[in-house]
Amino acid sequence: MNMRRRPFLILLLFLLFILQGTILPWLIPNVWEMRIIPNLVFIVILFITVYHHRHTALLLGLSFGMLHDVIFYGRIIGAHSFAMGLSAYLIGLIFQIPRAPLPLMMTVVLLGSLLGDSMLFAIYSVFNLNNEPYSWALLNHMLPTMLFHFAFALLLYIPLRRQLELLKKETRKEENI
Amino acid sequence: MKLFKLLSNKRLFILLFTLVLFIVVMGFSLGTRKALSWPENFLRDTTGFVQNVFYKPAGYVAGLFEDIGNLHDLAKENESLKITVAQYTRDKATYNFIQADNERLQKLLKFTQAQKEKYDYEYHIAQVVSLTTEPSNSSLVIDLGSKDGVKTNMSVISVEGLVGVISEVSNFTSTVKLMTMMDSNDPNSQPAIAATAIGKENSTFGMIQSYNQETKRLQMDKIPPGDPIAVGDTIVSSGIGGLYPRGLTIGTVDSVAVGEFGLTSTAIIKPKAEFEDWKQLIVVYTEERTE
């Protein structure tokens, strides 16, 4: 029973990745589809960085970002990987508080979502791939996406936190043995 | 002193190292690539398979609800379709005459086989597997791959018009970069589309090569002076160059203005195929010609 939770976590992330590419586009109304860019995997990774450890979050962010980059390879590889990994790590560096209450966690989700999207924007700007100003991008898709992520994080807060705390207990037990 | 301590930090070193590594990877993937490496192929094909299991059923369920919602529009739609069919049958007769004439003339003028088959395209239907709507990288994945003969830069169309081009191909899936990603700054961007207007096929010409995300409009450049293009014209691809098939609907003209240097005009075009949840798309197989 002991080692069950970690593979389960990775499976959950993979499932969320599949969902955000296949089912969510059908649920979000067409008008909003260009403005809400769901990244559910990243939200769960933010939970991991706060309640578990930032190194795990860094690794998960890098690998799932890379998955996204390879699957939806339109322009460059590595943008999502870099943005997700680094922003999860930075958020963890500041907010790694295993006992963080709900309001703090929600602030983290909002900040993390904004940081991740901004980092993506910065990467595309460096490679001269977007012509729009940051203010437009902020209003057009970053803020709606933040709100969407906020709602999703509220939905996920209780079950995910419980699981992550159990996972932490497991790892602690292993270390003691 | 504090700075040295910061620099000898192992973590910071690793961070900087990965930063450099990432920039190298991004720069490498930015250029044109002939084919994908095997890890990419494997990852894309396996994930594509799983996504396929999810996307289609979700589409059917969503479609059912949509159909129920559209029930009351059915009679109106039926009427307009009947009118279109009547027009189509009339046009079909004229078309057959013209085609027969054309073939006869081609024979008389001794067209080569390649010239005759220039505009024979193969259309293959493809299922959409998943999509992302991120503004800087909108793309969707379809379930046709190199095993089905898909190659990069083939056009992908919906019933309304041009949707995008194939950007990367793996064995069983391929990525479609939407037309909204067209950008003249991007070295990897899809090639410009040679376009013309319906009814003015021989006198109008322009190149569509960028999309403005803020105004959601395409830009058609290099229109020669004295061109009869006007607001409201329907713009279609002209097939010049051979990359894009002839006659794909692109959009309607919003406005025409004199371009940057005053020599050519620029038209702003409203795209016909708006973004939506596509179930099926059509890949146009253009004949590969040796040049």
What can you tell me about this protein's structure?
The complex is a heterodimer of chains A (177) and B (291). Chain A has 177 residues and is an all-alpha fold. In chain A, 77% of the residues lie in helices and 0% in strands. Chain A has a single domain (2-167), classed as Arp2/3 complex 21 kDa subunit ARPC3 (Orthogonal Bundle), CATH 1.10.1760.20. Chain A has seven helices and no strands. In chain A, helix 3 (40-51) packs antiparallel against helix 4, helix 3 packs parallel to helix 5 (79-95) and helix 4 runs antiparallel to helix 5 (79-95). The radius of gyration of chain A is 16 Å and the shape is globular. The model of chain A has no long low-confidence stretch (mean pLDDT 88). Chain B has 291 residues and is α+β, with helices and mostly antiparallel strands. Chain B folds into two domains: 41-50 and 71-183 and 276-285, Beta Barrel (Thrombin, subunit H); 193-271, Thrombin, subunit H. Chain B has helices at residues 2-7, 10-30, 38-70, 74-108, 113-116; strands at residues 122-132, 139-142, 155-157, 162-169, 174-178, 193-197, 206-212, 217-223, 234-237, 249-258, 265-271, 280-285. In chain B, the strands form two sheets. Chain B has a six-stranded antiparallel barrel. A six-stranded antiparallel barrel of chain B has the order 6-7-8-11-10-9. Chains A and B meet through helix 1, helix 2, helix 4, helix 5 and helix 6 of A and helix 2, helix 3 and strand 1 of B.
* Head-to-tail CA distance between termini of chain A: 16 Å
Q: What would CATH call the class of chain A?
A: Mainly Alpha
Mean pLDDT figure of chain A: 88
What is the makeup of the main sheet of chain B?
Answer: 6 strands, antiparallel, barrel
CATH topology of the largest domain in chain B: Thrombin, subunit H
Largest sheet entry of chain A = none
Secondary structure elements and their pairing?
The complex is a heterodimer of chains A (177) and B (291).
Chain A (H helix, E strand, L loop, with lengths): L4 H18 L1 H4 L12 H12 L2 H18 L7 H17 L6 H25 L7 H43 L1
Helix pairs in contact in A: 1-3, 3-4, 3-5, 3-6, 3-7, 4-5, 5-6, 6-7
Chain B lengths: L1 H6 L2 H21 L7 H33 L3 H35 L4 H4 L5 E11 L6 E4 L12 E3 L4 E8 L4 E5 L14 E5 L8 E7 L4 E7 L10 E4 L11 E10 L6 E7 L8 E6 L6
